[in-house]
Structures are given as C-alpha cells and as structure tokens.
Write a structure and sequence with these properties.
Layout lengths: L1 E3 L4 H9 L4 E3 L4 E5 L2 E5 L3 H10 L6 H12 L6 H8 L3 H13 L3 E4 L6 E4 L2 H9 L10 E5 L5 H14 L4 E4 H6 L11 E5 L5 H8 L2 E2 L6 E5 L10 E3 L2 E3 L2 H8 L5 H13 L2
Parallel strand pairs: 1-2, 9-11
Antiparallel strand pairs: 2-3, 3-4, 5-6, 7-10, 7-11, 8-9, 12-13
Helix pairs in contact: 1-5, 3-4, 4-5, 10-11
Amino acid sequence: MFVGAFLSQSVRDALEEQDASYFDARGHLHLVAPGVLLHLGRGRNATRTEKVSGQMTLGVHGVRAVQALLEEQGPVSVSQLAESAAISVGQTHKVLTQLEGLGLVRSTGRGPSKRRTVRERTELLDWLQRQPSAVRRERSLHVAFYARRPEELWLQSSARLTQAGIPHAFTGAAAASLFGVGPTSVPHSLLRIAPGVQLDDAARRMGADITERGTNLILLQDTGRVGCWPPGLRKGIQIAPLVRIYLDALSERRGDEVSHQFREAVLGY
C-alpha cells in the first residue's frame, strides 16, 4: 500500500490502473484485496461536472469495459466486470464510478457486496457511440483475398489467421450479415487484427495480396482489443462483440441502415 500526506489525482489514477492500494491524510483510500475493493474520497466537484456536461474521458480500455457492461444481463460487481473485460480492477472501478456520476448506471449494496446495474441500455449505447474513442478511425490496410463468395472469404481467412495464432475478429456489415442482417453483398469486409501484429504480416499469413485495386478486405488495427476481446464465434468465423459490430457498422457505406437493422434485430436495445 502507498501511504502519503497527499496523493494527487494523477498519482491516484495511476495507482488505481495498476490495482495498487493507497491512503493519504486527506482521506483518499483505495484498498484492493482478493474479493474486496474499497474506495473512499472521490471529489464531489468532478462528479457534479460530469453530470452537467455528460462527458468523461474514456480510453480504449474504458470502451471495452462499457461494451462488456452492455452484455451483462443483471447486476455486476467491479471484479466480475474487470474479468469479463480483461482490464484491471482499478480501471473498471473508475469507469463504473464515472458512469454512475452520469446517471447511466445505478449501484446497490455496500463494500464487497456492491453491484452496478445499467439503468437503460439504449441510453448507455447512445452515449457510447458519441464518444470519440469508441468510433475512432483505426490504422487500416486494403487487401485482396481470393474467394468466390463472401462467406468463403470470411471462413477461409479466419481459419488461416487462427492457424497462425493471430487474434482477429470480423466486424461491421460483414459480421452483421452472419446474423442475417444487412446487405446480401458486402464489397469490403472489415477485419480487426490484434494490436502487436503488423497488418502486412497478417495479410501475408492469410495469403492475401496488398493492393489498392480489386480489394475485398480491410484490415484494421484493433487498438485496445475492443474488437478481439472477448473472442466470439459465428458459423465457424471469429467475430467481434455485438456492440462493437454495431459501432463499426456505423462508419461503413450504408452504415446508418445496416447498424439500425442490426441494433433492432440482434441487440434489441
């Protein structure tokens, strides 16, 4: 545990992201232990500002936490959400506290038994898609992969990447069509590639040609693993989380139409 007369907000934030406990003479306490998270001393001014503005700084790990939260069917603890989103307890606690300050989630219980529940999924998803970090433009690479049909393209490219040990996920209109939603023809399929893997290397491992003509596949660097975690499978093809499929569809051609259909038929909120 870190102890001091005064720990600044930036220091406290950094310690929370590392799941480190701290205490200072101003009454700021953050205690992390197996099955326990105790946090005291959040400033009232920050909460009041968030409620008025409806804004908060949401990084890519926060985006992943909100995506995972939208998948939950009932009340969830900080540790449960941290595990499902694969981020630290400190980061998860910070996101949930901010969302509660914005009125998007409510809490019940105290101490280790404290749980959070989404008030309205529709409202939370509407809020998420307004966040720049949730709909950011990723580094991309256009490639051509020989396949007679889109389904063949998705199945074969996913199988080759899986064999090569490269985490990946189809998203946007391509993934939506696997649920019977969206266009019958997808001229360019979006494929998220895990961070740390060079896009050109992924293209080479799947046997695709890097070109600007005749492309049918767009590789996206999956910053923060917002698309590759948690891994999903649909008809033998790796796909992104449902919320990410919806968010990525918004940026594509006919995105408003496809995303609206997917949200209504698959997400349901």
